Amino acid sequence: MSQYSAAGVDIAAATRAKELMADAVRSTHGPAVLAGMGAFGGCFDAALALAGMQAPVLVSSTDGVGTKTLVAAALGRYDTVGQDLVNHAVNDILVQGARPLFFLDYIAVAKLDPAQVAAIVTGVAEGCRAAGCALIGGETAEMPDVYAPGAFDLAGTIVGVVERTAMLPRPDIVPGDAILALPSTGLHTNGYSLARRLVARHFATDGYAARPSILNGQTIGEALLAIHRCYLAEVNALRAAVLVKALCHITGGGIYDNLPRVLPAGLGAEIVRGSWPIPPICQLLVDIGGLDEREAFHALNMGLGMLVIVPADAAATALATIADACLVGRVTATPEVRLVDA
């Protein structure tokens, strides 16, 4: 055994992980990828990818999946969090109107397990393929003195592009504009520190294997690992059908922190209680945690995955375009976000 291996870093395992993930990574590549896996830096042909655009604006974002990794590790299931990572990132740049171009991931572990890392990266590649996004690089770091045994972290960076004239949000948002919601699949990638604490407290015996009746046969672990929904196809369909004035990805901070980020100064919103379905896992956490309404809608998305602002007279067309979209509220002249009764 080499001294480096004795120190906790296994170069051979890293090589094996790269071999296992290679085909999945290459499956995301198109003609614009000039150098990817194995190169010191990913190379992307911008002239080819941006051909025909008049004033292309690059839009980038970096994020992670938070402590959802601890749920994945506890269940020994690593095939979903990579998709979570990509879908979250795609949704973030979609809010500014951008389509994804390429993605880079970062995985850090205490001890490198090639099969585990390959499963994570295969999930990243699957998310990238679905979004038409090239996975052109990344890093796998083995850091035994930084991470606890069995723990891992996952983050990524996305770069996309939008015509400057098509950037969102638009400046012409006015009181009375309709707010639609595209439902979430569950917690997505936020609220897991709260969720893990509540599950540990209230289901101490069964933990993630518990099957409370509200989950309709699912275990808590299955519900918590539901994949973060990507809204790229739905938003593309909406933008082709109606004037979309703004999008809002409901992530950490819920509706209270995120919706004001896309509204002009001086405007706010009313969201109507009961106008959309709340995912069972969100309702379960509210019930077992005794969360009041403000905390629930601040810590969790509560089923409001992506909000879409359209002119009031375009709401019916928008609802007809996306089968599971819901009309949930309206823009107001009062600069606050409020939950109201119908």
Automatic annotation (TrEMBL):
Its EC number is 6.3.3.1
Q: Which GO terms describe its cellular component?
A: cytosol
User: Which subcellular locations apply to this protein?
Assistant: Cytoplasm
Q: Which key words are in the record?
A: ATP-binding, Cytoplasm, Ligase, Nucleotide-binding, Purine biosynthesis
Tell me the superkingdom of the source: Bacteria
- Could you tell me which pathway this protein works in? Purine metabolism; IMP biosynthesis via de novo pathway; 5-amino-1-(5-phospho-D-ribosyl)imidazole from N(2)-formyl-N(1)-(5-phospho-D-ribosyl)glycinamide: step 2/2
Q: Which residues form the PurM-like C-terminal domain?
A: 175-340
Q: What is its main location?
A: cytoplasm
Q: Name one GO biological process term.
A: purine nucleotide biosynthetic process
A GO molecular-function descriptor: ATP binding
Boundaries of every PurM-like N-terminal domain copy: 56-162
Q: Which reaction does it catalyse?
A: 2-formamido-N(1)-(5-O-phospho-beta-D-ribosyl)acetamidine + ATP = 5-amino-1-(5-phospho-beta-D-ribosyl)imidazole + ADP + phosphate + H(+)
Record has Transmembrane helix as a keyword: no
* EC category: ligase
Its family remark reads: Belongs to the AIR synthase family.
UniProt cross-references to HAMAP family, sorted A to Z = AIRS
Which PANTHER family does the record match to this protein? TRIFUNCTIONAL PURINE BIOSYNTHETIC PROTEIN ADENOSINE-3 (PTHR10520:SF12), TRIFUNCTIONAL PURINE BIOSYNTHETIC PROTEIN ADENOSINE-3-RELATED (PTHR10520)
Spell out the protein name for this chain: Phosphoribosylformylglycinamidine cyclo-ligase
